[in-house]
Design brief:
The chain is an alpha/beta fold. The protein is built from 9 helices and 16 strands. Helix content is about 35%, strand content about 20%. A 7-stranded mixed β-sheet has the order 2-12-11-10-7-3-4. Strands 13-14-16 form a 3-stranded antiparallel β-sheet, covered by helices on one side. Bound molecules: pyridoxal-5'-phosphate. Pyridoxal-5'-phosphate binds next to helix 3.
């Protein structure tokens, strides 16, 4: 098999080293005669796996004891509900910044539970998709929190700063967690579905400042109550044990490969290569304002939409998978998370060049 690179937005490519290790110990984990998937989450072996995963994530992101790190069910969208259920009081309000399809969905979910305000909406300037300037956000005095999505996976928009507010800041980092260095202390809650930069789908990580716990509404499902899960070490019910284990392998892989700073440098390089090729080409273009272009998800259009299916057919045959853009945006999208090596981006650019010459 010649080399294949998977540009899927999620579930996404995982580090090959991690999958090889998981394969090698799949049937007989550490000589125990059974798979980690078959072991009790209450047993000493699994508890060690779980704790090591949490510790590795704490080390990578420099997470202090002020925060609980929770391994939960239900992916990113589960957290769309968990956040308001835990920290939007009955009769209270919260502010949501919308700059793409995921933050829009988070707002719609929160509105089921209370007053969630649209503090900023889709924004564009000079025909380019952008992010509403911070000074124009309509933040309310009484908001219990401010929610935003630092990287919009579908739209290819990413914040290059952390907003400063006097309210707890809640961030949906599903598609950018661990991709660049951030100061966790600036956030009230960080959450992420796992399937982009962490591991298998279904798992969600929630990093919750401890003073925000213990306020969940009466009707909050216990599995989504941060306080209950924190007290139970995320084992109030059976956690997604295999996903948690695999996430731990990814965290350890990140640590042995230079941690987040090394990933950030590589992610910057990959994105710069791809955007600069697109910008210098007359055949492809990207519609996002330069400052807010995502390092993780790169949408691009061909000169002529009629060539889209040929592009997809030939790129797949060349071992470049899942480049089809999201149906709401069209065109193509290359998702280049941590696990995508620089050579994958080089191979994509080379293919794009050849395709442009033949079809230009
Ligand atoms: C993928 C994604 C989600 C949804 O995750 P699910 O696990 O499918 O619920 C939410 N937010 C962002 C930013 C995403 O990229």
């Amino acid at each position: 098999m010649s080399k294949v690179f998977n540009f899927c937005a999620g579930p996404a490519m995982l580090p090959a080293d991690v999958m090889q290790q998981a394969q090698q110990e799949y049937v007989n984990w550490h000589g125990k005669g059974c798979s980690i998937m078959e072991m009790s989450h209450r047993g000493a072996d699994y508890i060690q796996v779980a704790q090591e995963a949490e510790q590795a994530l704490r080390d990578l992101m420099n997470i202090s004891d002020e925060y609980a790190v929770l391994f939960m069910h239900g992916g990113g969208r589960g957290q769309f509900a968990a956040v308001p259920l835990n920290i939007l009081p009955e009769g209270g309000q919260a502010d949501y910044v919308v700059n793409g399809s995921w933050s829009k969905s988070a707002l719609a979910e929160a509105q089921k539970y209370g007053q969630a305000n649209l503090a900023a909406d889709y924004y564009s300037e000079d025909g380019k998709r952008s992010i509403t300037p911070f000074e124009q956000w309509q933040l309310s005095k009484d908001a219990a929190y401010v929610h935003y999505c630092p990287n919009e996976t579908v739209d290819g928009l990413e914040f290059d700063y952390i907003p400063q507010t006097d309210k707890p800041l809640v961030a949906d980092m599903s598609s950018c967690i661990l991709s660049r260095e951030i100061d966790v202390n600036k956030f009230g809650i960080i959450y992420a579905g796992a399937q982009k930069n962490i591991g298998p789908s279904g798992l969600a990580i929630a990093i919750v400042r401890k003073d925000l716990m213990g306020k969940a509404r009466q009707a909050t499902p216990s599995i989504y109550d941060y306080q209950i899960q924190a007290k139970a070490d995320s084992m109030y019910n059976t956690p997604p044990t295999y996903a948690w284990y695999l996430a731990g392998l990814v965290f350890k892989w990140l640590k042995t490969n230079g941690g987040i700073s090394a990933m950030e440098a590589q992610n910057k390089l990959k994105a710069e290569k791809l955007y600069s090729y697109i910008d210098n080409s007359e055949f492809y273009h990207n519609q996002v304002e330069t400052r807010y272009r995502s390092r993780m998800n790169v949408p691009f259009m061909l000169k002529d939409d009629a060539l889209n299916s040929l592009f997809l057919q030939q790129s797949e045959a060349a071992g470049l998978l899942a480049l089809k853009g999201h149906r709401s945006v069209g065109g193509m999208r290359a998702s280049i998370y941590n696990a995508m090596p620089v050579e994958g981006v080089d191979a994509l650019i080379e293919f794009m060049q050849t395709f442009a010459v033949k079809n230009g």
